[in-house]
Amino acid sequence: MTFLNYIRDIQDPEHPYTLEELKVVTEDSIEVNDKKSHVSVTFTPTVEHCSLATTIGLCLRVKLMRSLPSRYKVDIRVAPGTHATEAAVNKQLNDKERVAAALENPNLMYMIDRCLEPTDYY
């Protein structure tokens, strides 16, 4: 099983497609170092000014946190040059306290859980 299988069916928060179908994530965008228990996912938002880039990154993080053994450290990043506020999004997605605070927001968690729901149209 590849690591893409864990995240390929995440729904885009704005479009009726998965992140894989939109090419937001691909097999090549995932790096795994099993010895160091490290996974790095680089995603490409559909547009440079995507207002939900942080939400997409949080969906990826939550799905991997729920799917992988706790020994794994997960880094989520926007692909270089693909988002207007790339540095800010990357900082939000990889700061433990910011992520924890975001995941305490019930409205945000509702949106994330909706994106992580299995789809019936396959």
Automatic annotation (TrEMBL):
Belongs to the MIP18 family. The keyword Magnesium does not apply. Keywords: Chromosome partition. GO terms for biological process: chromosome segregation; protein maturation. It comes from Musa troglodytarum. Residues 5-72 form the MIP18 family-like domain. GO terms for cellular component: intracellular protein-containing complex; iron-sulfur cluster assembly complex. It comes from the Eukaryota. This is MIP18 family-like domain-containing protein. SUPFAM superfamilies: Fe-S cluster assembly (FSCA) domain-like (SSF117916).
